[in-house]
């Protein structure tokens, strides 16, 4: 609600600017040129040789198209989103429509328009199936039917409710049928929802940034894969792998079932993955927002394009183009030259799909604005006049060749019989294959299939049939199995028979077992054998099946079934994947193991103790996560099991033992979980034959538990110059939890002597955690000896406790600390204490804390002049950017991840960058709020929340600095109405500000500086 209120406040400010006759600029600025007529717009498209862009429909037949689908007759259904972004005013009839566009003479142009449904409000998704259309209209998922055959909806059913409405960029969208016959959809990070069936009394399934799926037969809704930013659309390759394009962060993700991925903001629904999966890209396209994705599998383009990825880029007015390269069980994406570009700044591609003709269809929003921020303030609002549907067709050397929009003008796949539907599974165009598979699954659900002989022959009888055809046949069989009419597993895969496509069959067997939750002895034996398959995609399917068997959810650990005997299967997976080189399998093995570890870690620990050293490095990953999960249970008896495990480890692989110890230490960063047994005896036994590195970690662990000898060893290590810096830092982190006089004294000694800067910084942070008297005096006394980065940390530490603030201000008064060394974030922290004495002294010695300026536009205008007046120094700009920005942001791989990656967001123009730097609080997405925690011992910490488990909260602040706080230690927690990013960067000198801004706008990776390209058009 707070983020929505801030959005409205910002809109009021923007509206005032328009009232003054001023045109807003920046990344949301309107197109600089006027709208073009469809014929003129068509002329300025640029596509590869042999391709042409044909118009299928345009205004007034279609306006504001946001989503599209086809029926069994090849007719295009389009959602017209008139009510974007505000929604219909109360008491007025909503104006969103669904239209059916038909090309009756099959000349490639729509000539018949039927309004199927009117009166929708913020409708953003549509998909045809089961005799009607599924429509996304947050907060609801609707099913609209025409029961009398007149092509007008006369029945409306609410299937699900609870989808978020906060950010109108990020509503539910991208509907498509998955290979499993379920309805897949995407949803953005800043519109969180709790999804449930209308009659449910439970809270529902949490969803923000995610790919989700809905089973029309059972009405089950679940998160398929969690993360990314604002994905708008999902598509599948021929193997059934899901892909989404994303905004702000990396642009392309392979979304494996149960995966938990890097996200733009917020925290994952499951905090026990202990890592986030990355994107599959190593490159950037134009700084942009992406809308739509198509894995091309049509039959109109040349063969070289099959499997390529097409994505709409609404800021670049282009269709970007990537090539997928297999990488174990996943992929990497390689960039290709942009597939479609145009000089028409109104072209806004929002959906790209392969049509019945095998061409690439594009829904073009066609608007002067790329996003809604400015549009909502413009008196004209979102343009409600234009809209186009384009088809990119391959004509080869036959320029202007007519290509029909569907195979036949009178086609109707629903009238074909079962055998002909089966034949269509072998069609060269993915549209026909998917339509046929959907119709076959619908018939299976109605129990109207006459025979499965032809389907079985498709799966097994014809060696020339492609994998995608066999996969489609399999999923029809799978639907029968879920309805109790399945076939024996050996039909899918028999490891004793020399099939020509063993790995393919093994993967299908694993998917069948997981999808049907088959835990029979035969199924378990099948999975165990498949777990040793050399194909990583098959092993990934096995790991996913194990997760499905032990949990009712792919991404959450709810409704755990500990009775399913998956232990042998997981062991086989660990052995066959021990090198841990695959980008997904280690993660998925953990996800399958995690619910079992949380319930009863003993069996897994026993196996790891006996075999871990022989199955590295994968077993090390699992040992570390297992230890962390034990800590997060908060159960001391399970910590006893962890301690016994350390004593029982066989083998001498230090890396394995260190991984387990690191997991235990990481898991107790917020608060120690003391075992019930005697740790002194247990640790002494572990130390008997330990190597120096292992001994050091054991001392750190013992320190966390307060073991006297371990504490003595750890405190000694902190100031031992002969110990590697990395180990000393870990000792500092462990000692920080002691909160004793001895620990404080060790830190004071550390910061008072000449030590490496990273070590000094860690010592300063530990002093903040330890608290008490004396730490602040030592920091002030040694201030002059600290390097710049350590001084920034020291200032943050001195104001992290209210009892230390006066010492900080005294040092400023005495000129020990220069006011120029005090950041805006430090001043904001002091102001947040709401202490009149602090504020009075700060104003006297430092300066008054500047509340956000009311006229940010005037301030931006002044800074723009300063930036444009003078030659930038790029070396100096890099230095300033590193110090001021990269403590929070990544930029071409350099920096931290507290805020969004600057490489792809917020700097599309000079004005866009200035607006984001000078006024970071104009709109704050959920997940980027500044969360402020006060602990029971008087410490204040703040930052972006990145982890929220049952036992602890992790905040990420500038530095980057991780603050892990036990929930039991929290006195108060609140979410600020301000961004994590502080204001005040504009208070730099004009020269420094200019250098920093120009470096961010034009880093060396993007070629020579061209100031003109950042200038914007100002309205007359």
- The total strand number stands at 35
Strand content: 15-25%
CATH homologous superfamily heading of the domain at 31-394: TolB, C-terminal domain
Shape: globular
CATH 2nd-level architecture of the domain at 31-394 = 6 Propeller
Q: Name the poorly predicted regions.
A: 1-26, 1013-1020
Let me know the average pLDDT: 87
Main pleated-sheet profile: 6 strands, antiparallel
Based on secondary structure, the structural category is alpha+beta
Specify Rg, calculated over alpha carbons: 30 Å
Helix content: 25-40%
Number of helices: 31
Assign the CATH topology of the domain at 31-394: Neuraminidase
In whole angstroms, the N-to-C terminal distance is 37 Å
**Name of the level-1 CATH class of the domain at 31-394:** Mainly Beta
Provide an overview of this structure:
Helix 18 (692-704) packs across helix 19. The protein has 31 helices and 35 strands. Helix content is 35%, strand content 19%. Strands 1, 21, 22, 23, 24 and 25 form a six-stranded antiparallel β-sheet that branches. Among the domains are: 31-394, Neuraminidase, CATH 2.120.10.30; 600-621 and 631-723; 739-849, no CATH class. The longest helix has 18 residues, at 2-19. It is α+β, with helices and mostly antiparallel strands and 1020 residues long.
How do the strands and helices of this protein lay out in sequence?
Layout: H1 2-19, H2 38-43, E1 45-46, E2 51-58, E3 65-70, E4 76-80, E5 96-102, E6 112-120, E7 123-129, E8 132-137, E9 140-145, E10 155-161, E11 173-177, E12 183-187, E13 193-195, E14 205-207, E15 210-214, E16 221-228, E17 234-236, E18 242-245, E19 252-255, E20 260-263, E21 290-295, E22 309-313, E23 318-327, E24 330-335, E25 340-342, E26 349-354, E27 360-364, H3 372-375, E28 388-394, H4 418-424, H5 430-445, H6 453-460, H7 467-482, H8 502-516, H9 521-530, H10 536-550, H11 567-576, H12 585-599, H13 602-611, H14 618-633, H15 636-648, H16 654-667, H17 679-687, H18 692-704, H19 708-718, H20 725-735, H21 741-752, H22 757-770, H23 775-781, H24 788-798, H25 802-813, H26 824-832, H27 836-845, H28 856-868, H29 874-884, E29 890-891, E30 894-895, H30 910-918, E31 929-935, E32 940-948, E33 952-957, E34 961-966, E35 970-979, H31 990-1001
Parallel strand pairs: 16-20
Antiparallel strand pairs: 1-25, 2-28, 3-4, 4-5, 5-6, 7-8, 8-9, 9-10, 11-12, 12-15, 13-14, 15-16, 17-18, 18-19, 21-22, 22-23, 23-24, 23-25, 26-27, 27-28, 29-30, 31-32, 31-35, 32-33, 33-34
Helix pairs in contact: 4-5, 5-7, 6-7, 7-8, 8-9, 8-10, 9-11, 10-12, 12-14, 13-15, 14-15, 14-16, 15-17, 16-18, 17-18, 18-19, 18-20, 19-20, 20-22, 21-22, 21-23, 22-24, 25-27, 28-30, 28-31, 29-31
């Amino acid at each position: 609600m707070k983020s929505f209120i801030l959005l409205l406040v910002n809109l009021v400010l923007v509206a005032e600017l328009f009232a003054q006759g001023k045109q807003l600029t920046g990344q949301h600025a309107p197109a600089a040129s006027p709208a073009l007529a469809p014929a003129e717009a068509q002329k300025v498209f640029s596509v590869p040789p042999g391709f042409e862009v044909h118009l299928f429909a345009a205004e007034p037949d279609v306006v504001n198209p946001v989503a599209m689908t086809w029926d069994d007759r090849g007719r295009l259904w389009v959602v017209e989103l008139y009510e974007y972004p505000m929604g219909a005013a109360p008491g007025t009839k909503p104006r969103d429509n669904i239209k059916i566009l038909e090309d009756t003479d099959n000349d490639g142009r729509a000539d018949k328009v039927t309004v199927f449904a009117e009166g929708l409000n913020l409708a953003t998704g549509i998909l045809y199936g089961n005799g009607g259309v599924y429509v996304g209209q947050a907060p609801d998922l609707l099913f609209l039917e025409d029961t009398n055959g007149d092509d007008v909806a006369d029945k409306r059913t609410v299937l699900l409710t609870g989808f978020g409405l906060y950010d109108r960029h990020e509503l539910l969208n991208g509907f498509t049928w998955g290979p499993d016959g379920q309805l897949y959809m995407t949803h953005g990070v800043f519109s969180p929802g709790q999804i449930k069936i209308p009659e449910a009394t439970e809270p529902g399934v949490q969803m923000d940034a995610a790919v989700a799926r809905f089973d029309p037969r059972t009405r089950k809704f679940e998160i398929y894969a969690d993360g990314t930013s604002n994905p708008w659309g999902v598509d599948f390759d021929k193997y059934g792998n899901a892909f989404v394009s994303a905004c702000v962060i990396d642009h392309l993700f392979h979304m494996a079932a149960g995966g938990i991925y890097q996200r733009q903001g917020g925290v994952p629904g499951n905090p026990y993955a202990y890592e986030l999966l990355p994107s599959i890209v190593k490159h950037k396209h134009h700084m942009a927002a992406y809308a739509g994705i198509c894995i091309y599998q049509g039959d109109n383009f040349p063969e070289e394009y099959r499997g390529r990825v097409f994505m709409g880029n609404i800021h670049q007015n282009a269709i970007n183009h990537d090539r997928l390269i297999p990488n174990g069980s996943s992929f990497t994406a390689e960039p290709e030259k942009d597939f479609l570009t145009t000089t028409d700044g109104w072209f806004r591609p929002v959906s790209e799909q392969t049509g019945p003709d095998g061409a690439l269809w594009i829904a073009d929003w066609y608007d002067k604005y790329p996003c809604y921020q400015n549009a909502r303030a413009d008196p004209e609002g979102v343009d409600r006049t234009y809209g186009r549907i384009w088809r990119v067709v391959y004509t080869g050397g036959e320029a202007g060749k007519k290509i029909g929009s569907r195979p036949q003008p009178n086609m109707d796949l629903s009238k074909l019989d079962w055998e002909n539907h089966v034949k269509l599974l072998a069609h060269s165009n993915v549209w026909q294959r998917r339509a046929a598979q959907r119709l076959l699954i619908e018939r299976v659900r109605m129990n109207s299939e006459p025979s499965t002989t032809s389907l079985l022959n498709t799966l097994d009888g014809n060696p020339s049939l492609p994998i995608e055809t066999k996969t489609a046949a399999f999923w029809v069989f799978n639907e029968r199995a879920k309805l109790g009419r399945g076939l024996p597993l050996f039909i899918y895969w028999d490891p004793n028979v020399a099939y020509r496509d063993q790995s393919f069959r093994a993967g299908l067997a694993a998917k069948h077992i997981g999808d049907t939750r088959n835990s029979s002895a035969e199924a378990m034996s099948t999975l165990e054998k498949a777990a040793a398959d050399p194909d990583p995609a098959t092993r990934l399917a096995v790991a996913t099946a194990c997760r499905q068997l032990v949990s009712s959810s792919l991404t959450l650990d709810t409704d755990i079934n500990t009775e399913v005997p998956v232990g042998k299967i997981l062991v086989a997976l660990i052995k066959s994947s021990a090198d841990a080189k695959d980008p997904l399998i280690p993660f998925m093995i953990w996800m399958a193991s995690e619910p079992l570890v949380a319930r009863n870690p003993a069996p897994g620990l026993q196996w790891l103790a006996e075999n871990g050293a022989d199955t590295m490095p994968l077993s090390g990953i699992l040992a570390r996560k297992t230890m962390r999960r034990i800590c997060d249970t908060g159960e001391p008896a399970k910590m006893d099991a962890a301690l016994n495990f350390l004593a029982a480890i066989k083998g001498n692989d230090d890396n394995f033992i260190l991984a387990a110890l690191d997991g235990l230490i990481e898991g107790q960063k917020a608060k120690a979980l003391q075992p019930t047994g005697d740790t002194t005896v247990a640790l002494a036994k572990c130390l008997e034959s330990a190597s120096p590195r292992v001994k050091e970690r054991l001392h750190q662990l013992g320190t966390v538990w307060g073991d006297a000898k371990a504490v003595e060893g750890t405190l000694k290590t902190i100031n031992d110059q002969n110990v590697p810096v990395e180990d000393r830092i870990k000792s500092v982190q462990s000692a920080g939890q002691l909160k004793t006089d001895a620990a404080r004294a060790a830190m004071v000694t550390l910061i008072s002597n000449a030590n490496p800067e990273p070590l000094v910084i860690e010592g300063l942070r530990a002093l903040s955690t330890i608290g008490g008297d004396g730490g602040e005096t030592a920091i002030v006394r040694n201030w002059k000896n600290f390097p710049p980065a350590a001084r920034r940390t020291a200032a943050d530490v001195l104001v992290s406790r209210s009892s230390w603030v006066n010492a900080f201000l005294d040092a400023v008064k005495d000129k020990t600390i220069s006011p120029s060394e005090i950041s805006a974030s430090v001043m904001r922290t002091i102001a947040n204490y709401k202490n009149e004495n602090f504020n009075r002294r700060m104003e006297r010695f430092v300066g008054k804390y500047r509340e956000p300026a009311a006229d940010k536009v005037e301030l931006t205008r002044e800074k723009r002049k300063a930036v444009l007046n003078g030659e930038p120094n790029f070396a100096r700009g890099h230095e300033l950017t590193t110090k001021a920005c990269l403590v929070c942001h990544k930029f071409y791989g350099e920096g931290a991840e507290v805020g969004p990656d600057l490489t792809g967001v917020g700097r599309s123009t000079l004005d866009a960058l200035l607006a984001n730097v000078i006024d970071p609080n104009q709109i704050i997405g959920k997940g980027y709020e500044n969360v402020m925690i006060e602990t029971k011992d008087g410490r204040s910490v703040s930052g972006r929340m990145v982890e929220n488990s049952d036992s602890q909260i992790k905040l990420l602040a500038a530095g980057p600095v991780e603050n892990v706080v036990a929930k039991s230690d929290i006195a108060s927690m609140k979410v600020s109405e301000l961004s994590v990013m502080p204001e005040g960067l504009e208070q730099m000198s004009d020269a420094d500000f200019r250098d920093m801004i120009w470096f961010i706008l034009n880093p060396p990776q993007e070629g020579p500086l061209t100031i003109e390209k950042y200038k914007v058009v100002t309205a007359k």
